[in-house]
Amino acid sequence: MDLIDAHFAFICATPLITALIGWLTNKAAIWMLFHPREPVGFGPFRVQGLVPRRRDELARKTADLVSAHLLSPEHLHKAFANIDAGPVIDHIAQKLVYEGLEPRLAAIPMIGGMIVRNSIDSIHKAVREKMRDEAPQMQHRMATQMASQMDLRSIIEERIRAFEAEKLEELIRKVAAHELRGIERSGAVLGFVIGLVQAAGMLFFAGAF
Question: Quick check: pTM over 0.70?
Fold first, then answer.
């Protein structure tokens, strides 16, 4: 292969080379979002991954977003108030009457022997119906108290801050896996297009056109 053929082969390979460079560049940029996890360097020249370096800010802004728009106290109040408490009420009423009240009544001298199952069943039914009638008001009061006392923003921020760097990276990569791969591919595509333009320019100036 003479010099002209080698030069022509290099021009033809240029799009592939620039595509590889574009892919590697974007892949390295994504890697540098998370690495190095601890500051490295010397003196004032130190490097750290963007996500580890700004984890506190990320936690704060995420907590603001979630608590303000996704899971506000009003949303929590509405969700809690709409819970079907029927099965829980039935369970509590059954334990109160059959495991709590009945043994105590049976232990009372003279009166205990007069208690029959039908009487206990009637008490259980009355207690269950009363609790079901009071359930909406109880749920509303509990939801109001929880919404006013629970600091969702602080809870969310604290949980994000508590994430280890590895776990945080794993979470972000899992959520944005498709988008991150798309960024890598777009680097290759853009590099390939730039390589085509460069190859065409080199051929043009070489007198091929």
Answer: no
